[in-house]
Amino acid sequence: MKLEVSIHASKLKNVAGAFKGTSDPFAVVTKLSTTPGEKPVVLGKTEVINDSLSPDWVKVFTLEYSMGTPCKIAINLFDEVQEGKNLSMGQKLKKGGTIYVAIRKSQSSGTFRFKFKGTKLKNVEGFFGTSDPFFEIARKVESSGSQRWDNVFRSEDIRNNLNPEWKEATMDLSALCGGDLDLPLEISVFDHEKSGKHDPMGRFETSVNGLINASKSNSSLTLTNKHKHSGTIEILTADVSGIQQITQGMQQMTFSPPPPTPASRATFVDYVSGGCELNVVVAIDFTGSNGDPRKPGALHHIDANSRNQYEQAMAALVSILLKYDSDQMIPVVGFGAKYGGVVRHCFQCGPTPEAHGLNGVMEGYNAVFRSGLIMSGPTVFTEVMEMAASRAQSAQQAAAAKGKQAYMVLLILTDGAVSDVNATAACLSRINDNPLSIVIVGVGNADFGAMQFLDDVNAGANGRRDIAQFVAFNQHAHSSHSLTNATLAEIPQQLQGYFQSKGIAPLPPVMRQDEEIVVGEAEDEIDLSLDIGAGEEEIVITSGGDDFVNGFNAS
């Protein structure tokens, strides 16, 4: 999936030097390597904004994205320094200021060609000069629950001319208006000043369709400045290409109205961009078949120098899922262990009902081995599945009441197949209608053949969603990126499938507060699983410790 990245900054530190004015900042955006042998790729650089410490760049960068594959970008800010006639270099900006990043799905919806001419523009230069006009185009976007204008194009300035004819330009419709030809656009004309504090000459609101209609009818659009007429803009050229259009002549040749163009299908990125919260629950297998964790080689053996397979899987998958979880709070539960002589199939891991971040998940996992558990059996998923489904439904209902959206991912880590496949399949069928995806990762060398059935149960039957995905850890142990890509690949389709089955459209895109990045000295990175059998034994880990198993609330 292709994404678009646009950036602006505020309150940057001036590095131009004493008596040398204000910095002329530009940004270089680089996609960083995330796998061994991969090289960083420079996506490009923005235009230079002269004499500004709060630059609003119009350059839009594109990059490919797929869930489960980490994608990191570095944004380096520079002050352009002229040396000689044509040589320019960048001086890296000092610590301070904030970068704002907007990320949206690329629509791949054709291009827009346009050419504007100003007529009798109001001079704002004063009595002894003539304005040097240029224009900007901004699109209306949702930002933190409100609306703002996001600059997407800036023309050249034409010196000393109140009847300027700017050069013809071409833009991707995706960057200009998200493919929506009726999206509000703001056209603003400014008098260019070397200081960077450009004087407004007038503005008007329109859309791509509005510009096309003005061009076809040879009509001009009126500029206003402080509610006063300040000139007109003639649309010499305005046409689109690369998308299907039905002309008026074609319509007249038909005997019936042409069928409406089907709306584009909403995607995972549309829902996430609209603020859909992705909640996570982690469930860990503590059955006896994992071996005695006090002995090296056991699947739960804790080694200060290396991670076991459970820890590796949690580190890889939870770190990705947390990117979509704003509060970073994750319930961590266990199953298959005895407390007080009773086998529990859904108990709290750690001293609190929810762990904070990946470190909290790891701490909760390690704390279990000091809680007096007896590793037992059988392997039962149904209780953690039903708990996750209940929480998922409650979270979505609470979110909907606030005009928001929520979805849940249950990550189950296990060393063997479930003891009762039929009961597990029936449970999956019962909870299929909830806003939930289930990711099962099999660790160790057990035969997971029976688990593949759960991956496909009810898939497509009577229009039901396939909500479960199984992956064997050992098949991807060579690369955490391979594991996350294989494990999380189906979640986007499952999420959009749930909301679309309920007739729930994505919310308007928002610019999240966590996309504000404080400029630092270093590069800033954004980051956009058979029956147990008689051989399974009970393993007593400790005879005492803190018993926090009863602290978990499944609701």
TrEMBL record:
GO MF, one example: calcium-dependent phospholipid binding
Cross-referenced SUPFAM superfamilies: C2 domain (Calcium/lipid-binding domain, CaLB), vWA-like
Coiled-coil region list: none
UniProt family annotation: Belongs to the copine family.
GO cellular component: a single term: plasma membrane
PANTHER family reported for this sequence: C2 DOMAIN-CONTAINING PROTEIN (PTHR10857:SF106), COPINE (PTHR10857)
Keywords for the protein's UniProt record, in alphabetical order: Repeat
InterPro entries the UniProt entry points to: C2_dom, C2_domain_sf, C2B_Copine, Copine, Copine_C, VWF_A, vWFA_dom_sf
GO biological process, one term: cellular response to calcium ion
Stated name of the protein: Copine-6
Pfam families attached to this UniProt entry: C2 (PF00168), Copine (PF07002)
Annotated ranges, domain C2: 95-221
Residue intervals of the VWFA domain: 279-495
